[in-house]
Amino acid sequence: MVSFEEARNIILSSVAVVGAERIHLLDAAGRVLAEDMAAPWDMPLWDNSAMDGYAVNSADCGVAPCKLRVSAFLPAGAHAEGVRVEQGCAVRIMTGAPTPGGCDAVVPVEETGNGDLEITLREPVRKGQHIRFRGEDVAYGVAFARAGAIIRPPEVNMLASFGMALAPVYRRPFVAILSTGDELVELGTTPGPGEIVNSNALSLATAVREAGAVPLIVGIARDTRASHMERLQEGLKADVLITSAGVSAGDRDLVRDVLEELGARQLFWKVGIKPGGPTAFALHGTTPVFSLPGNPVSTLITFEEFVRPALLKMQGHRRVLRPLFKVVLREELRKKPGKVQIVRIRLERGDGRWYAASAGNQQTAILRTMVDAEAVAVLPADSTCFAAGDEVDAHFYGNHIDLLEATP
């Protein structure tokens, strides 16, 4: 049995990005840049006005108030060739319009006593005020986004501003999901005696999609070697294979044996974590294979702690683990030594701290507790008793991370 930390280290050292592709900007949000992006031209391309107002020469405006004659008009989209600020004059200008020759400042319209032919400046003018200078945002050849950056609306805007319709991003891995067991029936079938719906396939597919990868459900492997061989061979065609159930030591737990027959190299089986101890990890060539326990809570917890970080790394993410934060326990928690225990918790905020209480029954078959949990507490392997008032590490589970981001 490997420790929780060892298992993570083995997994993350065994996976790599799965390649890159170019996709349209509208599809790029949340994806990770695969290349440094450098400016193909200066931004802005010319000196331009940051305000609606008047282009002036500050030397004409050293003493306030002063009067200037309005000699021309430059709207946004106009060309400034042939337009110049002559001595004692001003050019009416709109936001974004190129500044004319002789201009070294812009006076906002609200700071003038303005008229059609003449304006009065009420305050002294500072050279360079309200002008956006060529290249002051990004100069030609300078990298404005680095490989590894997550594409957000600002990155999309910058890429589009430079005329880049396609973004180079790391590819999303295709993840095959295989359930095992004679007791399983597909969604849409009413289970009979001894049968259960194959819910793990759907929850894993949802978790894979939330992690940014592409789920491929490859069906159910029945409790025969031939069925396992057929379904596992199909699953190994993907970038990643996840199996659920069939990974313990029972007579019908065939996953690890058949994977070995197919040439997979097992890197570990059994982890010092509760729930989820029977988890196994193997490589088939370079294809990672995660064999997760079949109880729904164990399946989701082990996906969260082991599979999700690997999928993020394979997509080029640099931060693949959820950030830990401290919670104050509302009640005593006890555990056996030797394993990290993942406890489903609910949270309250008070006095600038997070307070945590159990989300309910912690048995691995009780899925409702997973639904009710906002986070999980990560109890260290070498400790056994945690009193009410003790602080322990926790991290949000799924989209509840928005609670942390919203906290002052």
Write the SSE topology.
Blueprint: E1 2-3, H1 4-14, E2 20-24, E3 37-38, E4 48-49, E5 53-56, E6 66-74, E7 89-93, E8 105-108, E9 112-114, E10 118-121, E11 131-132, E12 143-145, H2 153-161, E13 166-170, E14 174-180, E15 184-185, E16 196-197, H3 199-210, E17 214-221, H4 225-235, E18 240-244, H5 255-261, E19 265-269, E20 271-274, E21 280-284, E22 287-292, H6 296-314, E23 325-329, E24 333-334, E25 340-350, E26 353-358, H7 367-372, E27 375-379, E28 385-386, E29 391-396, H8 401-405
Parallel strand pairs: 1-20, 6-7, 14-17, 14-18, 15-16, 18-22, 20-25, 23-26
Antiparallel strand pairs: 2-13, 3-12, 4-11, 5-7, 5-8, 6-10, 9-10, 19-21, 21-22, 23-29, 24-28, 25-26, 25-27, 27-29
Distance between the termini: 41 Å
CATH superfamily of the largest domain: MoaB/Mog-like domain
Largest sheet: 6 strands, mixed
Number of helices: 8
pLDDT under 50 segments (min length 5)?
none
- Give the helix/strand class: alpha/beta
Strand percent estimate: 25-35%
Attribute tags:
single chain; alpha/beta; Molybdenum Cofactor Biosythetic Enzyme, Chain A; Molybdopterin biosynthesis moea protein, domain 2; Molybdopterin biosynthesis moeA protein, domain 3; 6-stranded mixed sheet; 8 helices
